[in-house]
Amino acid sequence: MNKLYHGAAYYPELWDRDTIEEDIIYMKKAGINVVRMGEFAWSTMEPTEGSIDVGFFEEMIVKLASHGIETVFCTPTPTPPIWYSYGYPERMHVDKNGRTMGHGSRQHACTNHPIFREKAALITEELAKRLGKLPGLIGWQIDNEFKCHVSECMCEQCKSLWHDWLKEKYGTIDNLNNKWGTQIWSEAYLAFEQVPQPGPTPFLHHSSLSTMYRLFSMEKIAEFSDEQATIIRKHSNAPITHNSSVAFSVDNERLFENLDFASFDTYATIENYPAYLFNHDLFRNIKSGKAFWVMETSTSYAASLASYAMPHPDGYLQAEAIASYALGAQGFCYWLWRQQKSGCEQPHSSVLSAWGKPTIGFENVLEVEEIRKKIEPIIAETYVPQAELAITYSDRAKAFLETEPHQNLQHRRLMTAFYERILHMGISRDLITEQTSLDGYKLLFTPFLPAISHDYLMRAKAFVEAGGIWIVGPLSGGRTEEHTIHTDMALGELERLIGANVLFTFPMNENEAVGSAFDVSAPLSLWSSVFEYDSKTSVGIITEGIAKGHSFLSEYRLGKGKVVMLGSMPIGQAGDTLLTKLIEHYSKEVQLSTQLSVTKGTIVVPREHEQYTVWFIINMDGQGGSVNIQESATNLITKENIQAGELEIGKFEYVVIRFEKTQQ
Amino acid sequence: MNKLYHGAAYYPELWDRDTIEEDIIYMKKAGINVVRMGEFAWSTMEPTEGSIDVGFFEEMIVKLASHGIETVFCTPTPTPPIWYSYGYPERMHVDKNGRTMGHGSRQHACTNHPIFREKAALITEELAKRLGKLPGLIGWQIDNEFKCHVSECMCEQCKSLWHDWLKEKYGTIDNLNNKWGTQIWSEAYLAFEQVPQPGPTPFLHHSSLSTMYRLFSMEKIAEFSDEQATIIRKHSNAPITHNSSVAFSVDNERLFENLDFASFDTYATIENYPAYLFNHDLFRNIKSGKAFWVMETSTSYAASLASYAMPHPDGYLQAEAIASYALGAQGFCYWLWRQQKSGCEQPHSSVLSAWGKPTIGFENVLEVEEIRKKIEPIIAETYVPQAELAITYSDRAKAFLETEPHQNLQHRRLMTAFYERILHMGISRDLITEQTSLDGYKLLFTPFLPAISHDYLMRAKAFVEAGGIWIVGPLSGGRTEEHTIHTDMALGELERLIGANVLFTFPMNENEAVGSAFDVSAPLSLWSSVFEYDSKTSVGIITEGIAKGHSFLSEYRLGKGKVVMLGSMPIGQAGDTLLTKLIEHYSKEVQLSTQLSVTKGTIVVPREHEQYTVWFIINMDGQGGSVNIQESATNLITKENIQAGELEIGKFEYVVIRFEKTQQ
Amino acid sequence: MNKLYHGAAYYPELWDRDTIEEDIIYMKKAGINVVRMGEFAWSTMEPTEGSIDVGFFEEMIVKLASHGIETVFCTPTPTPPIWYSYGYPERMHVDKNGRTMGHGSRQHACTNHPIFREKAALITEELAKRLGKLPGLIGWQIDNEFKCHVSECMCEQCKSLWHDWLKEKYGTIDNLNNKWGTQIWSEAYLAFEQVPQPGPTPFLHHSSLSTMYRLFSMEKIAEFSDEQATIIRKHSNAPITHNSSVAFSVDNERLFENLDFASFDTYATIENYPAYLFNHDLFRNIKSGKAFWVMETSTSYAASLASYAMPHPDGYLQAEAIASYALGAQGFCYWLWRQQKSGCEQPHSSVLSAWGKPTIGFENVLEVEEIRKKIEPIIAETYVPQAELAITYSDRAKAFLETEPHQNLQHRRLMTAFYERILHMGISRDLITEQTSLDGYKLLFTPFLPAISHDYLMRAKAFVEAGGIWIVGPLSGGRTEEHTIHTDMALGELERLIGANVLFTFPMNENEAVGSAFDVSAPLSLWSSVFEYDSKTSVGIITEGIAKGHSFLSEYRLGKGKVVMLGSMPIGQAGDTLLTKLIEHYSKEVQLSTQLSVTKGTIVVPREHEQYTVWFIINMDGQGGSVNIQESATNLITKENIQAGELEIGKFEYVVIRFEKTQQ
């Protein structure tokens, strides 16, 4: 990665020629070296059905390139024009309550309708042909934020595809009935055609039906993405991405399978900076070995007609940018360049105002550019090493929790909180998908994964046998992949593998249940697995409540390593302490080398070179902090020498230091 | 009642033969002597339309009987199979927003559709014929929890039945218009066909329309129950019940009219143990003189995919069981035997787990069985005497309050709170329906009954004239049976009968209005009737607020007794004290013999024998307590002698003592 | 204005002859001299289609007149009879979720359907003909509370009218696309027929579409009102009004354009007495120079089946009545005379109960009548002078804020709070519409007006140039009349006019941003305009937050006056102080003569006569207070002399004093 991109979303189709000229001048001033264009411009490219002309964008790409500004071009499929929607309600997205979406916003069309696919293919092919080899065209983005406003579509077309998908997956309706256990409540189906979409019912739908419909929907949107990518590749060699998020109703692992690099959009405010970083540690590993992009973030605040976030405090944008580049982002891009003058996102922050002036946050953009230039050579010579600690992230688990939220549980919130603890402990970490190779890791966490697949289990087993420690839970393993309950043992194959004995599973009453481990007692919560007490395996004992005397935390040796079953969720401040001690304990046991002594709110991002290590130290919370430096180093920006000891970091300050590697 | 049942809901149709064998072994171990089967198994019995075969259940009943396990068999009508639902949206339930329910849960079918009635009759007749005389078949349950997920259906079929029902009730449309007062807002109808169901309107519907539609719906579901019972009785002598609840949209009094015994489902947690007991004191009197059943309760906690209750603390299940048996339950049954492996209630507690192990709560089940065996002979020789204090409970009043909730009032919550106070005072009490005979009572409470029927009034009058004290209110009597306002006097016939003078009715502002009675002053609340002050009748005076100087509590002599009008609701801690004093005052006046000195959280259930009295003393709240024993007695479990004085009761402890009756 | 009316809504069509006789006797007793009749009585007048007979009301008007009770008669169009609704779903109102309203409440019909207009015209013409010249008929009310339950209708008929309206407004679809900026999100339309109503979409609709649909709906209901008024005027000279409110989805300025006098309904409770007064200061100016009416207010509390307000404390009704008459109301009328016996408003307070007795509040009604008689001659000889301070109120601004609520902002709440501050400062004030002449004012406030029209701007400019001070903001001027963002300057024409320089606009973070002016520092909030600091123009400086050092409050000289730009919203207690000081500062600068020293909770209403000034001093909050009298005066009720100095006012007390004017 030799170049760091500093970019912005750009909608020249909404403005006149003079404004565009003004924009380019300001882009140069602000150090914008890449724009993203095209994702909502279908009606500009094809104002009436069949009248495709993408000349305007061809011209724009060339013009921008002539000013040194490169382009990521997007397919415009999130917003089909009026000629596609008007008079065709059957082509529209239908929500859970059966309401058919109308024209006037975005994502109103069902992406599974064959005519949609056909029209999308035509416009994308034309774009790929005409723009695919232009100078300055460095990448493609398919569509925009798939499923950010909608989740599963309930239209008639989807119903029919759902039946096909089920037929493909289950072969016979008897097999489906059997796998799902539909004899319950006399739900059993006589034919695939009878299996409903999860629409209105007097009480909850069957878990398997609900979860499978979510997986079906995730597969279908990925299939659309695949189709689009195939078309583009016929005419262009530029790498392809999608701007995704863990907040959308997609399976990111599956979605990026056939794309070339990962990118995401994030609008976390400073209070949620761990959520901001979470994205980096995840998307870096979604297309492992390939640089990812922060495709959208605000210069100051996100807003629409109906809500707004608080603006960034002065200094935070820079902290975000350095953190992004240091954690492996090649691109750091704003949404958006020039404030929308119409539509429903008029109040959203931008680089320029609708009337062409630098807006709030513009000064910060200039500072980001200063930083980018300073760190570009440092980034170019180093790389983000694989962490020793990994946490499995699964969008399929998210689907399971949407079907079975127990008590309003949200997968994203649970995962972010779990991640945050490890972040604050100063441990370098990777968020990895279910299929990511476990090679090279020492410590693996698998929290909040209701269904552990056979494949995952086998790879985790090999990881453990080779010496790794695998910490499973809370809320992991208690469901089959069909979203039913195991009928052999509480945790099925996993339990048999480790030789555990789960006595029962039930929701802990956090006002009564107490667990004790690592000399800490804490309330226990969530749907829990309780293990038989055994002095050889029990690490955490339940000391209060109806499962008193049993174990909520047990270790099982397997080959050279260990499986640690965290059956319940310690909560509150004491729970946090307990979990922190647990992580410390096993980090020590596997001899993690990456835990650093840094105050909460400040992060250290190590990057490697053959001969040296670089640390990016960044204060994210605006409170300042310090980090313990164990050997002398050089400040790469000031070139000053830094002594071992406590290094103070000011509010939103960043320091880049270099440690020489001793010869081995 | 010679036998006490200890049972569980059982779904053998969902499991294989080996599992069933295992189940029976465990049932014997756990002391389960009755199962309930069949209520969701329609697709097992009739997998395709017309292919009825109930052989599996015939075999199950016989097999279980051979192990000493008897059966209550259910008609499977809550879950019509896919051949009934698929392709027939006109047969489905339609909710208030006009959404047609789909297959995939339960109660999706409109129970008023003629084809539903026809299909239900066929399956039920076959079940009755084939199973009706089997050994071990001791009872029938019709359907399951009528209207637990749905309330009034808005389908076209119901619309037509609604018109027939109105025609039957009102004769002419002019009569309906007149009774309802539809001239208001030009609502007047020219024909029955024009009277809408209470669907979407810009503002609230007319009160009469709303309430009558609820009563119509309640009548129709009872009519379906009647039809089913008639069919069963053609082929079986086993008594028939339904597992109901005050939480469902049914009129329990009407529903049980043509059934043989009462039963109910309850999942109250320990915090709501008064609500648990409420059911017993009510359903005992719904089919007066016949033992009732607790048909469903959890061993530990209720749960679905989307929510869960906290598990019972250790000891509470036993307290529940003893209380149930002592209060007159013949059966105490769990939902469910073996954890669901699929569907939407997988996390619900059970006796065995889905993988065949005893789950949390299993030990408590064993203890219940121990207790059952110990108390069975004591129960067999005694009976629950009629209480001296009665509280009228009306599901029709619930319908009125749903139409007119004033400020989010909930009938069930109001009634439970009212009941709870009397419970905590240690007074034996009956909850009785509107038509229950008042003979034998001394003190009658009629709270939260907006419309007092002429029949009820006449019987209450006779009760009072014979010496009873009738306490009416709060919120009682201010509406006609058509849910309109009286136009002769505020409380209509009641007011005239007692010679009261209601000055006005209005909602008291609890921040301003204060009432004083029995030397207590308390804030007044709720829609209130204010009586003219008269030193002869006024007992409670309004001392603050806009009705200052008038009366909120007045007594009127009638024959040998009194009608006490409680026009307003004293609230807060002071209100509770005032109401407690009121109850004490009138209890004393009628010389109630059953008020016991027992600490809150512990209950005393007296049972009678010709020669002795037995007290079941049970600590329900897990805090322990004590009860004052006025004469020496014998502990029937330990056979020890107990001296008069304060008897300590441990946490969840139960003590059964016997007092000898002195010869009269 | 020689006569003050004391009235009540009366529904004789719901009662029998005897009851009507009783009513009239009580009306005389209570001093009711006017009734309002007819607004829901369509089915009485035309029980079947075409069978119009209004004889009953003719008789009623004459009978009442013979007792000295005059009548305001209403057209009955809010409640079309069943013959209009039954079987015609296409005539009904359709809500935002596409639900078609049914019969059974009111406002169920779409008022834009041609058959509705036709039927409404027929009944209204008949009423006008038959009743228009009757003795005692002193006024007309069209319909009742337009759009109080519904807002925009989404029916097919409205869709077609919407297209016509757009065609009329924009001429060509290209012009619409251009004005709205529909190129965004490929929304662009090829024909007017394609422009949707703002129904369901995955995310927010385009701002212009949403706002224009609201304006279209407001125009259509006013058009209906116009039609009705035209019909009435053919046969009657009695003045015409509508009982409106700022809470309804109407544009009051436009609605009253073709009506003869203003009236409104208000049910504010004592806590919201400023909202009660707000109506008076607004509706007095909506038909400037013509007396307005309080057409509906409760004697004690508003209620329906589902909710109720707290009853008025004793004394408040009188305070309301005096305040109304003093502030210019000619009529003060209750809703309603006799409690509803049926329908959905049974619990609502009234003068008589449904059973014909005086209800709670009746005594207060008698006191109101006493007061009315006492003050009638004083009112008759004086008038409410135009205030020197005006605040612009705009229902179109309300529509903009509904489309763009930022963070749940409510126009009414914002305006009331702004008004309340000025009220509490003892300053006489007018709330005026956008088109009201600015002549005679010294100080003009324009808060919360997103789009400032060119016409308004030109008139405000003239006002300022002539010496006025115009205080603009917060939240004013940042949107075009099409609800888009200006593209020339942040505030468009306004900014150019005053020569300001808005640096940026963004939502202030009230936890960080602080503004300082008039020696007060306060948190800043809301979407804000930040002005370049300039020692000549900056009055309020931003001292903390990301816009630190710039200005949130700047003055710009224009002719003999000043434009004061309040770019942000100071909040909290300090914000209130800052705004109070701002108002004081500019009041002083323009030498307002009407600021009085009166304690909060007590109001002073000055009225003028050529030779003297009368003050109505009224304690509204029931806490009592005082007012500083600067010269000696006469108490017009007691005839006592009052010395200059502090005059104590008791709880809910009113004092009317007269100051002689010294000869000039």
UniProtKB/TrEMBL annotation, chains A, B, C:
Keywords (A to Z) from UniProt: Glycosidase, Hydrolase, Metal-binding, Zinc
Domain of life: Bacteria
Reactions this protein catalyses: Hydrolysis of terminal non-reducing beta-D-galactose residues in beta-D-galactosides
Enzyme Commission no: 3.2.1.23
All copies of domain Beta-galactosidase trimerisation, residue ranges: 387-592
Domain Beta-galactosidase C-terminal per the UniProt entry, residue ranges: 601-658
Glycoside hydrolase family 42 N-terminal domain ranges (all copies): 10-373
Pfam family, one: Glyco_hydro_42
One GO MF term attached to the UniProt entry: beta-galactosidase activity
InterPro entries found in the cross-reference section: Beta_galactosidase_C, Beta_galactosidase_Trimer, Class_I_gatase-like, GH, Glyco_hydro_42, Glyco_hydro_42_N
CDD domains in the cross-refs: A4_beta-galactosidase_middle_domain
Similarity remark: Belongs to the glycosyl hydrolase 42 family.
Name listed for the protein in its UniProt record: Beta-galactosidase
Native source species: Metabacillus malikii
Lineage per the UniProt record: Bacteria, Bacillati, Bacillota, Bacilli, Bacillales
